[in-house]
Design goal:
CATH superfamily of the largest domain: NAD(P)-binding Rossmann-like Domain
Shape: globular
Strand content: 25-35%
CATH topology of the largest domain: Rossmann fold
CATH class of the largest domain: Alpha Beta
Order of helices and strands: HEHEHEHEHEHEEHHEHHEEEEEEHEEHE
Radius of gyration: 25 Å
CATH architecture of the largest domain: 3-Layer(aba) Sandwich
Number of strands: 17
Structural class: alpha/beta
Strand order of the largest sheet: 3-2-1-4-5-6-7
Number of helices: 12
Number of domains: 3
Largest sheet: 7 strands, parallel
Length: 419
């Protein structure tokens, strides 16, 4: 904003040129924060103190949490692109975020936007950023991370006047290093004096017998969470996990609930998400987690049921069990419809009218694009009414298949899910 590094460079060179380095103020400007985890939240607080309007984007940030932080919730990236004068990135590299700041994204941004990336270099397409800077679309960029580190001596970034570079300094401060040492000492002292274990790098302690009972549910729970994460709308502020049948008798359900939440948040902009920190991260994002042992009669011997809510409205639910043995988990209920779905691979889900020829049409269309069907699950509410179809595929269907299905009047809500 104030071009301090560039101005310093000219002063060292013996010059005095104030006009060349006229900057802009932060007060009254809009900051777009991509990724509202711990770091993104702290950045937002500081921006508000500077008098900035903050628009935050995070697929798992709830409206209530956004209000509590004093920011506006962007339900889509394009809202941030349209409105932000400054954009700062605080997201991990995932399939969804890799290369997300590219020519297409820059084209949607305000002229003169300023970009800061202290997260991961792979999030920005470097050549596209240079082109956006050269065109004036992006006024300036501050970069602490790069696709290849150390940054090559002849990298174009080093010569561009609109880019401020730092060598991945991150938390390289004297205070941060001191706090790290103090925290280690406090954790060890706590364990030696009281037996308390904090910040463990593995799962919470379970004896061998308990772990063997819980182990099958860990995978099933994580997959249920991943499934709901890909099907639920953006606004989910509560997860409810129910343990029925023999599952209610598990000696410790906490690791399973953690697995469900970890699966649900796996697509969120959270760095280093794991079974240990998942509950605190959920709390940070405004996601309430509930669990219940239920003695009510259920159809299956083992029953794990996950419901996602927005306020008091249930937006989606899914349930799973085991067929024959704990090594054969299945998803058996989705959208309140009975299904039978393996918990791995690529799935094509669609709602359709219960009409003759739908199954044949799907098989022909997929075969045309060389996509093989591994298994199929069909269910309906009434004959001739609404039906729900799930296809397990050997490969991801191309965009042309999805486009063709969405044009069919008998088919709606086409989704591709990867487990």
């Amino acid at each position: 904003a104030r071009k301090v590094p560039q101005a310093h460079g000219t002063m060292v060179a013996g010059k005095w040129d104030r006009k060349q380095f006229q900057g802009v103020e932060l007060s009254g400007k809009t900051l777009g924060v991509l990724g509202m985890g711990r770091i993104g939240t702290e950045v937002a607080k500081r921006a508000i103190a500077f008098g900035m309007r903050v628009v935050g984007y995070d697929p798992f940030l709830t409206e209530a949490r956004a209000r509590a932080l004093g920011i506006e919730l962007a339900t889509e990236l394009d809202m941030v692109y349209r409105e932000a004068n400054f954009i700062t990135v605080h997201m991990p590299v995932t399939e969804q975020t890799k290369g997300m700041l590219n020519t297409s994204a820059f084209a949607k941004m305000k002229p003169g936007v300023r970009i800061v990336n202290c997260a991961r270099g792979e999030i920005i397409v470097e050549n596209d950023l240079i082109a956006a800077l050269d065109s004036g679309k992006v006024a300036a960029a501050g970069l602490d991370v790069f696709i290849v580190e150390p940054l090559a001596a002849d990298h174009p970034f080093r010569k561009h006047p609109g880019i401020i570079l730092t060598p991945h300094l991150g938390a390289s401060t004297e205070e941060a290093q001191e706090k790290c040492g103090i925290e280690v000492a406090e954790v060890i002292t706590g364990y030696l004096l009281t037996g308390e274990v904090r910040n463990a790098v593995n799962m919470p302690y379970l004896d061998a017998e308990t772990y063997e009972q819980v182990k099958p549910y860990l995978l099933l729970g994580e997959k249920l969470g991943k499934l709901l994460a890909q099907l639920a709308p953006a606004q989910v502020d509560r997860l409810h996990v129910t343990y029925g049948g023999k599952a209610q008798e598990l000696p410790n359900i906490d690791p399973v609930t953690r697995a469900v939440v970890q699966g649900f948040l796996s697509r969120a902009s959270v760095k280093d998400l794991n079974n240990i920190n998942v509950r605190s991260i959920a709390s940070t994002l405004g996601l309430t987690v509930e669990e219940k042992r239920s003695s009510e009669p259920v159809t299956f011997n083992e029953w794990l049921h996950v419901q996602a809510f927005n306020g008091n409205e249930k937006v989606i639910s899914a349930g799973g069990t085991f067929f024959g043995s704990p090594n054969n988990p299945r998803i058996v209920r989705l959208y309140s419809m009975p299904v039978e779905i393996p918990i791995s691979g690529v799935m094509l889900l669609l709602s359709n009218k219960d009409r003759p020829g739908i199954v044949g049409y799907l098989g022909t269309l997929l075969a045309k694009h060389n996509v093989n069907i591994a298994s199929m699950s069909l269910s309906r509410d009434t004959a001739g009414g609404d039906a729900f179809t799930v296809l397990n595929l050997d490969s991801e269907p191309p965009a042309a298949v999805i486009a063709e299905l969405e044009k069919d009047d008998c088919i709606r809500n086409v989704k591709v899910v990867k487990l």
